[in-house]
Amino acid sequence: MREARRLIFARDGRVRVSAVAEHIAYSRRHLSERFRAATGLTPKAAVRIARFQAARRRLAVPRRPPRAEVAARCGYAYQSHLCREWQALAGCSVGTWLAEEFPDVQYVAVDDAAGSTHD
Predict the structure, then answer these.
(1) Which pLDDT score is estimated for 101?
(2) Are the CB atoms for 118 and 107 separated by under 8 Å?
(3) Phi and psi for 24 in degrees, rounded to 5?
(4) Nearest CA to 49 among 13, 19, 83?
(5) Residues 28/17, Cβ–Cβ less than 8 Å
């Protein structure tokens, strides 16, 4: 299970559970059962967490890229997918998290000069 966890987090969650199972020569079902027994999470939940952590790292920089770019680079289907996952995992919106985490930093995205807005 260490190898499955390593693969999921090394790829920032940008890996299919079926690919992880194939990599360690388990069926998807067997991987899910063993992974849950070892970690308390399903592999799919671990993928979600890894992807969320990758997005959080990308947003926790002074010159943040636009959220749509973060979503694409972190394996989310689109920006609203990132926002829904963020709400589900962090319990708040991306904008609320940024304001609370970095209260003394004014949010300026790379594309803000073009007049786009972000939540």
Answers:
(1) 87
(2) yes
(3) -100, 10
(4) 13
(5) yes
Torsion-angle region of 92 (φ positive above 0: left; ψ -120 to 50: alpha; else: beta): beta
DSSP string covering 19-55, please?
Answer: HHHHHTT--HHHHHHHHHHHHSS-HHHHHHHHHHHHH
What confidence category does residue 109 fall into, taking pLDDT thresholds of 50, 70 and 90?
low
pTM for the structure as a whole: 0.82
Residues 6+ apart with CB under 8 A from 35: 1, 4, 5, 41, 42, 43, 46
Note whether 26 and 34 are within 8 A (CB): yes
Q: Which two tokens stand for residue 98?
A: 């940024």
Nearest to 97 by CA among 21, 50, 105: 105
